[in-house]
Design a protein that fits this description.
By secondary structure, the chain is an all-beta fold. The protein folds into four domains: 392 residues, no CATH class; 101 residues, Immunoglobulin-like (Sandwich); 93 residues, Immunoglobulins (Immunoglobulin-like, Sandwich); 44 residues, no CATH class. Helix content is 0%, strand content 43%. The chain contains one helix and 73 strands. The strands form 19 sheets. It has a five-stranded mixed sheet with strand order 10-11-1-15-13, with no helix packed on it. Strands 2-3-8-5-6 form a five-stranded antiparallel sheet, with no helix packed on it. Strand 16 and strand 17 form a beta hairpin. The radius of gyration is 36 Å and the shape is elongated. The N terminus is likely disordered.
């Protein structure tokens, strides 16, 4: 039996750890101790362990590795614990980043480092962040959340504030005496913290807030830490299932000849598709809405305002066609391949294609991977054009289309791809067969057969660019009947072949070989880094992305918590390697002076990434063409039971929720009481409404706390983890199958009987009261019929106001039943009999008496016989006597 806990404030605790709390205080470093017994003299290596001091539960900041006095480059090997793989970290001038994250300080005891004997200095692990803000438990509107601020460094004066999604300060109160109220920017003084001092504050979450909330902490030296609190019941759920990423840039508008803002097209594939666009830099919601099949939501700055250089996320309830554009904003120019209606593939059998401007240079081409047919219809079903393919090839359908119209393109007998081709622009070309890496929802852009149309720019020939993921031979020819030209590309390199404008077939001739392909025209130069003025998504294998066009840099979008990211041939901010979480963005720095190939990679295909590359005039960060946005991840399904109470009254509960219709939902249950051991895994298919149910068939244990998490996968090949906020995708419940004790009904509000507890009253508007388990929901019954519920307070006392329903005279049996937080019901209480009697008795008569007796007997006649409990009184000259 467990009672509910009710808290009305968000509590933020600040814990300061002075540098004296950890050994080797230089830079707040942890102590690193040699493990001499595992020294490998033959290999010339030393192995080191980490000896942190202070409480093991402390949350850790980002960590770095430092060799004191180090210059130049050196390599250190590190692993997170026994049985874990060793990873190499390249130190530049004696510094590098830890390639994994750790849950707390205690986990540092398991870390091991290996260095060459030739390195005289002992390696140190140092904190990279002075303040760490962490939260415990889910965040919900008007519900409690606990945030801890941990200080890694010397004692300092700390101030805090909280702001909502539009930057408005939120009222808060600190419990420290130093708080004199907020300043003009909403900052409150938390006080000067020494050692392990704590400071706390209450942040009032009111219904009218624009969520999510940003909690900020800052020291007097300007060191900062932030945490975004996004209520899971507002920013997650069925309307937040598929995620796309982009970055806003200033652009050149062809019509007005001035720079203007980003625009975003969201084209519906299924009716009732909802969308939310969120600025990741401010955590503010930019736009929400709904699109039906063929509808186009056109979001153009300044409504909403896409702030230059801000990254944003598009979250949708169903797959969409999403296009981010720049130059000539209303026409969607550029060279790109459209996504099929499954929202992932670029070769398929059904497409929803928005046609932008038809300026004489823009072409719409259907490529077939084999023999079959293709048809174009309006969204309402009216036939527009069709074509039969005798073999793999192309169909230029431009002449059949009307600008500004959305079309349905379908195929039979063959898969097809649909390309919008334009000049002065480049695109990543999809292969006819797209390999999906294990666990990723981003299909690979590697393959062995490609079709593409490319155009020149002002007489400058376009190019085909092979991207080498392995050593392969490849060849290309111009369709329909051009001769083959042979070429090669090596791993980590690219190979550019200048061609003339036209339709091309490209294939890899090495057995089982694959490569990536970029195609298009370049403006004002003859090097590959001049290729195109558009923005290109590099997809690679999903977890490994290679490319050769970083003219104006770009962004790497991380879709999964715990993604270890590294690079070669690129410079980034923050520097890689690093372990990042879902929603983190890494900036690729531009390089207009070299065309050195680059490589970005994560640890495996279960941690996919998306790389967006910018082109144009880098001086103004101009991006003047458009691109298709590729989905980076699916959110987790919503778990609706266990519910928000956090308790379950069934050892084999049916876990329920919602997901994308037709996906496979996998449920995992962890026993938190026994160290988060995985105790159950089950799967189900979401129905046509997205609803799913998974019975837990392995009995759970009474009073244990369990964590429930679910993921969804498309076609069984791309289960993905959540983007923050995780929303109600994760749930928890404590098993409680023991019903509470029966409550008691002890009194009525106005007892006018002979005693204050006999249940007799002349008042027919009553309040019932009694006792029950503290915090229980009490069901109140009158003659066996439930008349309402009330909550028992912390001491178990409860009362139920029934004064709004006058009762007729009579005797009533009042009973109660208690329900605990796990929805266990107690036995019914013993009845309390309430007697309502509002009818006065008939007036008695008094027999006249004349006497000189000073103590006479008074006689008379009662108007009605006395009933049990009735009282008869006689008053003589103001003195009352009871018979």
């Amino acid at each position: 039996m467990l009672s509910k806990r009710n808290t009305l404030v968000l509590l933020v605790l600040a814990t300061l750890i002075a540098t004296g709390a950890v050994q080797a205080a230089a830079e707040g470093a942890f102590s690193v101790t040699p493990v001499t017994e595992s020294r490998d003299a033959a290999a010339g290596q030393r192995t080191w362990s980490v000896a942190p001091e202070g409480p093991g539960w402390l949350p850790l900041p980002r960590l770095g590795i430092v060799l004191p006095g180090g210059t130049g480059s050196a390599t250190v090997q590190i692993c997170s614990g026994p049985g874990e793989p060793w990873r190499e970290v390249e130190l530049v001038d004696g510094r590098g980043s830890l390639p994994f994250s750790l849950p707390n300080a205690a986990a540092l005891w398991e870390v091991r480092l290996r260095t060459a004997d030739s390195l005289a200095a002992s390696p140190q692990i140092v904190p990279l962040d002075p303040l760490v803000l962490t939260s415990e438990g889910p965040v919900r509107a008007e519900a409690p959340a606990l945030v801890t601020v941990t200080r890694w460094g010397e004692a300092a004066w700390l101030k805090v504030r909280a702001v909502d999604a539009v930057g408005a300060p939120i009222a808060l109160e600190t419990l420290a005496g130093a708080d004199g109220g907020p300043d003009g920017e909403g900052w409150h003084d938390l006080g000067y913290l020494n050692g392990t001092d704590q400071g706390s504050l209450r942040v009032h979450l009111t219904p009218d807030l624009s969520f999510p909330v940003l909690v900020e902490a800052q020291t007097d030296a300007g060191e900062t830490g932030v945490l975004v609190l996004a209520p899971e019941d507002l920013l997650a759920g069925a309307a937040d299932m598929i995620h796309y990423y982009g970055m806003a840039k200033p652009n050149w508008n062809c019509a007005t000849r001035v720079y203007d803002g980003t625009y975003l097209w969201i084209v519906g594939i299924e009716d009732g598709t909802t969308y939310t666009v969120t600025d990741l830099d401010t955590a503010g919601v930019l736009a929400t809405g709904t699109v039906n099949r063929g509808d186009k939501a056109s979001l153009v700055s300044p409504n909403p305002t896409f702030v230059d250089n801000h990254r944003f996320r598009l979250a949708t309830s169903r797959p969409v066609q999403a296009y981010m554009g720049f130059d000539c904003s209303g026409t969607l120019p550029g060279s790109m391949f459209f996504l099929a209606d499954d929202g992932r593939s670029m070769y398929g059998s059904a497409f929803t294609v928005p046609v932008g401007g038809l300026d004489g240079r823009t072409r719409y081409v259907v490529f077939a991977s084999g023999a079959g047919s293709a048809e174009i219809r309006t969204i309402s079903g009216t036939p527009v054009a069709s074509h039969t393919f005798a073999a793999a090839g192309y169909w230029d359908a431009t002449a059949s289309l009307t600008a500004g119209t959305v079309y349905a393109v379908t195929s039979s007998g063959t898969t097809v791809a649909v390309q919008q081709s334009s000049q002065n622009t480049a695109t990543e070309v999809p292969p006819t067969t797209m390999v999906v890496g294990g666990g990723t929802c981003t299909p690979s852009s590697l393959g062995n057969k490609f079709y593409v149309h490319i155009q020149d720019w002002n007489g400058t020939d376009p190019a085909l660019v092979a991207i080498g993921y392995q050593d392969v031979d490849w060849r290309f020819r111009q369709l329909p009947s051009g001769g083959w030209t042979n070429s090669t590309v090596r791993t980590g390199n690219t190979r550019r072949r200048t061609v003339t404008e036209g339709f091309y077939e490209v294939e890899v001739t090495t057995t089982n070989g694959t490569m990536g392909l970029l195609a298009g025209s370049y403006e004002g130069g003859a090097e590959i880094w001049d290729l195109g003025d558009d923005s290109v998504y590099y997809r690679g294998t999903g977890s490994e992305v290679r490319g050769h066009a970083l003219r104006c840099g770009g962004s790497i979008f991380v879709a999964h918590d715990g993604t270890y990211l590294d690079e070669t041939g690129a410079t980034t901010t923050p520097a890689l390697p690093a372990t990042l979480n879902a929603g983190d963005v890494v900036t690729l720095n531009g390089n207009t002076s070299t065309n050195t190939p680059f490589r970005i990679y994560s640890q495996d295909a279960d941690h996919p990434i998306v790389v967006e590359v910018f082109g144009g005039n880098c001086a103004t960060q101009l991006n003047d063409w458009s691109k298709v946005m590729h989905p980076a991840a699916l959110a987790r399904p919503v778990i609706t039971y266990p519910d928000a109470s956090g308790y379950l009254n069934d050892l084999t509960p049916d876990v329920t929720g919602t997901a994308i219709p037709g996906v496979t939902v996998t449920l995992r249950v962890y026993d938190h009481t026994t160290g988060d051991a995985l105790v159950f895994t089950g799967t189900a298919t979401a129905d046509g409404t997205g609803a799913w149910t998974i019975p837990v068939t392995d009995p759970l244990t009474e009073n244990h706390l369990y964590y429930f998490e679910a993921v969804q996968s498309l076609d069984g090949v791309c289960p993905v983890d959540p983007l923050p906020p995780p929303g109600s995708s994760g749930s928890q419940g404590q098993i409680d199958t023991t019903p509470p004790a029966a409550p008691a009904v002890t009194a009525i509000g106005t007892d006018t009987g002979t005693s204050p507890s006999d249940g007799i009253t002349s008042d027919n508007t009553l309040v019932f009261s009694g006792t029950a388990e503290a915090g229980a929901l009490v069901h109140v019954f009158l003659d066996g019929v439930e008349i309402g519920t009330t909550l028992a307070d912390g001491s178990g006392a409860w009362s139920f106001d029934y004064t709004g329903t006058p009762l007729a005279d009579g005797t009533y049996a009042v009973t109660a039943r208690a329900e605990d937080a796990a929805h266990n019901l107690s036995p019914v209480s013993a009845p309390f009999n309430a007697v309502v009697d509002t009818t006065p008795p008939a007036a008695p008569t008094v027999t006249a008496l004349t006497t000189n007796d000073t103590t006479p007997e008074i006689h008379g006649t009662l108007g009605a016989a006395l009933e049990a409990g009735d009282v008869f009184t006689v008053t003589v000259h103001g003195v009352t006597y009871t018979a």
